Amino acid sequence: MTRNRAPEPTISEFVDGLRSGNRQLLSKAITLVESSRPEHESMAHAILDSCISPGSSSTIRIGITGAPGAGKSTLIETLGLEIVRQGKRVAVLAIDPSSSRSRGSILGDKSRMEKLSAHSDAFIRPSASSGYLGGTSPRTHETILLCEAAGYEVILVETVGVGQSEIVVNSMVDFILLLILPGSGDDLQGIKRGIMEIADMVAVNKADSGRRTLAEISKADAESALRLLPEKHPGWNRKVMLTSALEDEGISELWSTILHFSETMRNNGVWETQRREQLRLLLYTIVEDRLKREFYSHPAVKGIKHSIENQVLSGSLSPFSGALKLLEAFVGKS
Amino acid sequence: MTRNRAPEPTISEFVDGLRSGNRQLLSKAITLVESSRPEHESMAHAILDSCISPGSSSTIRIGITGAPGAGKSTLIETLGLEIVRQGKRVAVLAIDPSSSRSRGSILGDKSRMEKLSAHSDAFIRPSASSGYLGGTSPRTHETILLCEAAGYEVILVETVGVGQSEIVVNSMVDFILLLILPGSGDDLQGIKRGIMEIADMVAVNKADSGRRTLAEISKADAESALRLLPEKHPGWNRKVMLTSALEDEGISELWSTILHFSETMRNNGVWETQRREQLRLLLYTIVEDRLKREFYSHPAVKGIKHSIENQVLSGSLSPFSGALKLLEAFVGKS
Known about the structure:
Two copies of one chain form a homodimer. Chain A is an alpha/beta fold. Chain A has helices at about 10-20, 25-35, 40-50, 70-85, 115-120, 140-150, 165-170, 190-195, 210-225, 250-270, 270-295, 300-315, 320-334, and strands spanning about 60-65, 90-95, 120-125, 155-160, 175-180, 200-205, 240. Chain A has three domains: about 10-50, Single alpha-helices involved in coiled-coils or other helix-helix interfaces (Up-down Bundle); about 55-270, Rossmann fold, CATH 3.40.50.300; about 285-330, no CATH class. In chain A, α1 (about 10-20) packs across α3 (about 40-50). The longest helix of chain A is centred in the last third of the chain and has 27 residues, at about 270-295. At the A-B interface, α3, α7, α8, α11 and α12 of A face α3, α7, α8, α11 and α12 of B.
């Protein structure tokens, strides 16, 4: 908390900066969004208020998931380079299901995506560990909105395939790509099924020439697994592809499939419906985050919180009656 | 919702019934706990208020986790039978990380634990799908308290190893056992690490005579994985055991290890500290659940919710300003 640093830009400076694609200000705005300090959050929201475009957007938000080692970052870099090659600006974010004890970002340092991060049409934001256990936080959604305001047309959101974070990413992206490895057999099925359900496409990654046969088997496995699942979006037949970022195999096909998905879903209205659903969810996530903050910062609550907690911990008051007393303090006196 | 059914028991009937170990009333009380209807919840809490014993409890709460197919239910049955053989009453519950789209209980029908469910000192409660995505709900914790009130001294909580549900079970049990399979190699490491962190013990299950060598290798793998992790509880060295429910191998060792853990942790105070921490967490989970309900059922909120939501979805209002308006309605007028 050094005091003598340069003054924070004003909201309009942020807005102008974002509109002109200023990366420094975009990063600064994302930091505000990720901050836990109320004044930062209000500022971030004020910026977003004047940034986000009403109505349906022309951007494409893609969630990319898979178990550790599935080759997510390499594929993201190759796909990102393909996207910028086609003249679109791409932003890469990560949802970090930071474990309860150890923390750490997925993307890690940008050097894992050297070529892409050096590109003028790409923006890479390693995630700050949220500590939200897979992120019930709306932060990533807000970061997506900021990137779009800064003119990034394709947003790639990396998430690790542990189940919970997919549910979160599913609530803020248009398309979910699941990466699996050649020969990754049935052991992961239990975990994969939950993720398969929300995948719009599966790629057997690292399907390098050497492991083609194995990859073909995994492809068949994944296809039969998908057949058992209910359709996710009407009018979309979930495919399984073979990709090799290393040999730049299947990457452009991957991108054109995503474009085809986007076109199909925009035409049948699914795209807009899903975006609206996600916006509704964001609204209530923000409401509930703020509500909790109002509650815990309320004088009447702060006044008795400590003693209620002690009574509960000493066993002289049940957690249920304790909860009621705290709520009465809040509802009664606010 | 049939109207002409037998009248609900009164709170004191519930309390007396639980104290006398009446299974029907225990099941009924758990159903109240799991109900989403406010009046049911209040009744459940009133029952718990007069049931739960203040101060530290002599019960043992054990979380048992592992990937699908790790043999959780067979091990739980064998362990449960060992526990009742030693004269303790055991209750088996499940945390169901019901996926976003498909639902379904882990324990499924009791027939998976035929012998144990037939035993007079055992109570088995298949979980109702919570839909809480791995359960941020306090319901399981409340169910544990009900079972303890009904005189069950050992509570076994089954959970599937997908990451999130372990965090939840970790917030309500004293001991966590992770089951892995012989030969379950490094592929799961990424997922396992997060779970390993909260495991107090790892069992290589299905270590039947035929797969001993493979099991020994997995044991060594798990041991080295554990060595890399920070200690979970001071004074407890996390062990890896070989178990075979099929051949009743290692089950009694498993139980005596748990008893040894319990004794050690009670003596060094960790047990009590963890229980208090869990009680604190339960208090605030209940508070926040109730707070949300108060909010959404508040007249002023209900009055504008629909129009705010429409403005947000039509893009004429940002979700951030929309959230503020809803909060002002609640805080301002309650």
